[in-house]
Design brief:
single chain, 269 residues, mainly alpha, 10 helices, 2 strands, globular
């Protein structure tokens, strides 16, 4: 089956965007990257103007989540990606906020983190895997059977490192950079490098305007109100959270057998 021909759609795969494992065209890849940029602007703007209304902001951030799920097209897996991010992201932040790395200006009477945070984190794995698909041409299979335990252990270790050393960017980088190499070796996928690069760029970009507006405050404001280690933190957590989310989505929603050798080759790399 030629790669540009869409297979018959099922009830859960009835959109015109490239399916989960297929290789989208160059035009579609560029369109996805531009779409993510627009969603970054929308999400950052929504936080800037509505962070003092945290529950309304949570509703506004449902739009980018819905768009990202639609764009991935395999709705069951995409929803699981988003749900995993919505759980792991805020849970990680609770420990970081409790450790004094940053504080939110308005939490809506919730301890440590605002109610819109799970919705914001729900965008993270779908967006980064969409970037990976745009750069590499497809979304790979789960890295390994132990991806979830490895990711959870890695997240716990990263939280300990940043909470313990986050008062000093040189110390954090001295420990965090070797940790980034270990994260790559744990999964051994080119996609892991793309996730790290995407996270290190998108994370600080998304934060710059809200931090300037006072939505949250870092204990170590070095560059535009943000710590110098922030890109590294996003790189590490992007890889770990997204690999865990991918493993959960593939485990709970196994894909059907590919119809041809070309389709099979396009499912991973």
């Amino acid at each position: 089956m030629p790669l540009h021909v869409m297979p018959p759609a099922t009830s859960l795969q009835s959109c015109q965007t490239p399916l989960w494992g297929q290789c989208p065209s160059i035009r579609a890849r560029l369109a996805d990257l531009f779409l993510i940029l627009l969603l970054v602007v929308y999400g950052s703007g929504a936080i800037v103007f509505q962070f003092q209304r945290p529950y309304l902001l949570a509703l506004l951030l449902l739009l980018p989540v819905s768009v990202l799920v639609w764009r991935l097209c395999d709705y069951r897996r995409a929803v699981l990606l988003a749900a995993t991010g919505a759980v792991l992201g805020p849970l990680t932040e609770v420990f970081c906020v409790a450790g004094g790395l940053w504080t939110y200006s308005q939490t809506g009477a919730i301890l440590y983190v605002p109610p819109w945070l799970p919705v914001a984190w729900a965008c993270f794995p779908p967006a980064l895997w969409l970037i990976s698909r745009s750069v590499l041409g497809g979304i790979p299979g789960a890295a390994r059977g132990m991806a979830v335990p490895v990711s959870l252990a890695g997240i716990g270790l990263m939280v300990a490192i940043f909470v313990s050393l986050g008062h000093s960017t040189p110390l954090t980088l001295a420990v965090g950079l070797p940790a980034a190499a270990l994260v790559y070796l744990a999964f051994r996928q080119t996609a892991t490098l793309v996730l790290m690069a995407g996270g290190s760029l998108i994370g600080p970009l998304c934060e710059s305007m809200p931090v300037a507006a006072g939505a949250w405050h870092y204990a170590l404001p070095e560059v535009l109100g943000m710590p110098g280690w922030l890109p590294l933190a996003y790189a590490l957590f992007a890889a770990l959270v997204c690999q865990a989310a991918l493993s959960v989505s593939i485990s709970l929603c196994p894909a059907p057998q590919p119809r041809s050798s070309q389709e099979a080759a396009c499912r991973g790399f």
